[in-house]
Amino acid sequence: MKWYVLHTRPRSEKKAEKQLLSRGINAYCPTYSKIKIWNDRKKKIYVPLLPSMIFVSLNDKEINQVFECKAVVKYMFWLGKRAVVRQYEIDILRRYLSGSYEFSNSDISDIKVGDSFCLSSFNNEKGIVNRISNNNIWIYLKSLGYNIKLKLA
């Protein structure tokens, strides 16, 4: 089965995931934890990583079943076709968000800005180091066309 990207109503990602799962459709909304601070309290909340987007794994016969959920707006398209995400990319995203990747300061001891860098925890994706600070490293992944920021251990 293929993973497709769905566009949801604003701030309805987790609701759409819950509704799709209750209908028997394999859905995934990647989230990360964040501490939200109000005047009187602090609370740990889970925020969607990709605003207004979730992933669904479907057969071609079940394509239109997602529209039974009110929070789903449409499929995302790339080059005139429904955007497809590979299973290993979903696995990498889940592994990264769960924190089960290995990355430490010793990995970058002699790396400088502009160097090529291989991320073993991201299926050996190669990227270019854009910036290094005390606790973070920014790497540009050509295959995704995106910068990622990693916290150092």
Just name the CATH architecture of the largest domain. Answer: 2-Layer Sandwich
- Give the low-pLDDT segments: none
Tally of individual domains: 2
Number of helices: 2
Order of helices and strands: EHEEEEEEEEHEEEE
Would you give the CATH topology of the largest domain? Alpha-Beta Plaits
Structural class label: mainly beta
How would the blueprint of this fold be written?
Layout: E1 2-8, H1 13-22, E2 26-28, E3 31-37, E4 42-48, E5 53-58, E6 72-75, E7 77-78, E8 81-82, E9 84-85, H2 87-98, E10 116-119, E11 125-132, E12 136-141, E13 146-151
Structural notes for this entry:
14% of the residues lie in helices and 42% in strands. By secondary structure, it is mostly beta strands. It has two domains: 2-98, NusG, N-terminal domain (Alpha-Beta Plaits); 105-151. Strand 7 and strand 8 (81-82) form a beta hairpin. It is globular and about 55 Å long. It starts with a strand and ends with a strand.
Keywords:
13 strands; 153 residues; five-stranded antiparallel β-sheet; 42% strand; four-stranded antiparallel β-sheet; mainly beta; 14% helix; 2 domains
Could you give a short description of this structure?
14% of the residues lie in helices and 42% in strands. With 153 residues, the protein is mainly beta.
